[in-house]
């Protein structure tokens, strides 16, 4: 488990099914489980007891329904750091925990969808009534969040998604500050996710406006503004492709060779990778097609809007396909490694394909940062005009 945030040790009353209530010293925390498999881990809030023997009493020996010596755990696969912290803060103020209480905290903290909890858990707990509506509103609406930089960095170092969209939303609302640590995390994540998630909102309507699509009402100045933005995007993309193109061909050939080396016909490995071969080969082909589109599409025959859209879509398709290759290879080696005591040439071949996909994604994103900083920026999406002045 990775502990991202920890509350204060306090006394709480805890009740679970078929057990007498206990009063114990516990510490609320927000963390990540299953971090050894980054593509399949989940985030949650729980109570860490000071006396670890309490786990045996509450859940049996060996413990059932327990996560690394914690009580009352509530988790999700949604990577939402701000919501996890708020859920922990709400749990800090609750004294009496019974079945469903922590899930109610997660519901009101934003870590779990409210509709899910209403359907799953038979509880009538109203957290606002328990901790006070003023406290609930303060935690969820007014309090400034702490520095998310260390938590984000801990996740990035293990290859775990930080949920950057949630952080951007909080930065734009003013509830989160761009600290030096968070700025560094944004710079690191830009190498992995910039093309897929970093295009500022202002480009969303660019194509529709300059093509005068039905339903889009715009002033003449809006038209020229978006037309100019599209032209600048095209020039920047062309400069990037002219510099990166030869390397893309070479790197793609290496990727092909590493995918050919994957042990799809190995009888030992087959149970762990069923269904992966066709998926990986599909995205390998899509990546190759995207590279060719970027390098040789007849852009002179297209309108400005179509040129802009063609470059944007091909670039997105390339990085998305490489990400899918990385994801599908990432989910294989964990099981192969643990089933063979870590000694497996198949494991090495799979990791080589995954690592090359990740390296190629990083190379593309770095090129985008260099040649297209105006068109892709997490800082601008967060409402920060110049990252160097943050």
Features:
alpha+beta; Four Helix Bundle (Hemerythrin (Met), subunit A); 3 domains; six-stranded mixed sheet
Strand content: 5-15%
Can you tell me the CATH architecture of the largest domain? Answer: Up-down Bundle
Under CATH at level 1, the class of the largest domain stands as Mainly Alpha
Shape: flat
Poorly predicted sequence stretches spanning 5 or more consecutive residues: 62-66
Estimate the mean pLDDT confidence: 83
Write the layout of secondary structure elements.
Elements (H helix, E strand, L loop, with lengths): L1 E5 L3 E5 L7 E12 L8 E8 L3 H7 L11 E6 L4 H13 L2 E2 L3 H9 L4 H7 L6 H5 L1 H10 L6 H8 L7 H10 L6 H18 L8 H5 L9 H41 L9 H4 L2 H21 L7 H27 L2 H7 L5 H27 L6 H4 L9
Account of the 3D structure:
This protein folds into 3 domains: 2-142, no CATH class; 149-200, no CATH class; 202-374, Four Helix Bundle (Hemerythrin (Met), subunit A) (Up-down Bundle). The chain has 17 helices and 6 strands. The protein has helices at 53-59, 81-93, 101-109, 114-120, 127-131, 133-142, 149-156, 164-173, 180-197, 206-210, 220-260, 270-273, 276-296, 304-330, 333-339, 345-371, 378-381; strands spanning 2-6, 10-14, 22-33, 42-49, 71-76, 96-97. Strands 1, 2, 3, 4, 5 and 6 form a 6-stranded mixed β-sheet that branches. A hairpin with an 8-residue loop joins strand 3 and strand 4 (42-49). Helix 7 packs across helix 9 and helix 14 runs antiparallel to helix 16. The longest helix is centred in the middle third of the chain and has 41 residues, at 220-260. The two termini are 32 Å apart. Residues 62-66 have low confidence and may be disordered.
